[in-house]
Amino acid sequence: MARKSDVAAQRARACKALMTQVHAITAKEGINPSTLHAIKLKLEALARRKELFPAADFALPVAQGRNYPLLVEEGDGLGLYLNVALPGKEAAPHDHGIWCATAAVSGREKHEFYRRTDDGRTPGSAAVTKVGEVLVQPGHGMVMADHDIHATTVVGDKPMVALSLYGYALVRFPSVAWYHPQFKSVRTTQSRRHAQNVGA
Amino acid sequence: MAKTYQVTIRNSGRTIACAANQTILQAAIGAGIDYPYACATGNCATCISKLEDGKVSLLPHGDACLTKAQIASGLTLSCRARPRSDVTVNWLARSGS
Hints:
The structure holds 2 protein chains of 2 kinds. Chain A is α+β, with helices and mostly antiparallel strands. Chain A is built from 2 helices and 11 strands, in the order H-H-E-E-E-E-E-E-E-E-E-E-E.
């Protein structure tokens, strides 16, 4: 049985190798549907290596929903995370302004994709319509382009453990726009990280 | 049919009905109250509020948005909180749309 430190070292090497591969892809061809698909395949391959992401290393029993940075670059570099979320954990339709790919280590998460249909002229108001859906589970990942809108829900009775790769590190997200079909509204947060200091 | 509780939102000075299967935020927006929110799904903490009285149950949320220590100190997320008694809440932030 591998020691915890050995697993961590192997995980770090594997993550670094992924980042190198992704940089090679984007340096050559930039970000387009073809390269995003290639990135998703690389991420799926890493997620298949379940032995690198043992539950004991990521506080699975207590996490409601949490991002663990694996290798996060400084500035406007890529951000690679292990996400853990309990069944029922959800995110309303949102646009985080930058492409991302997700691949499951275990568990299942429904991703619903939306398109904005109003003219955007009324501040705080928006209309979106659902245009597609993907079930992310081991072997079946998801990729989306800059400014695509998606909603997520962890389904089934097991936690979702997934790798997510973003075009920016989470701390560098310019903003996140949240759409609420039931309220016919849109609200913007400047960064996901701002929440950590609210009411603390 | 779900049981209904009375929710007092101190900032607005109003008391509204909220079904047990409804979040406080849903009931507030439905009642025309300008409650601050952004993600409305427990990911941003814009709707973080003081639970001044009563009991709620919480839907899954991001750990960083509402910690166990914050819950212990009487804070809640209105977008994740469903009433389990009559409650009084007071939002801490102001909406920025």
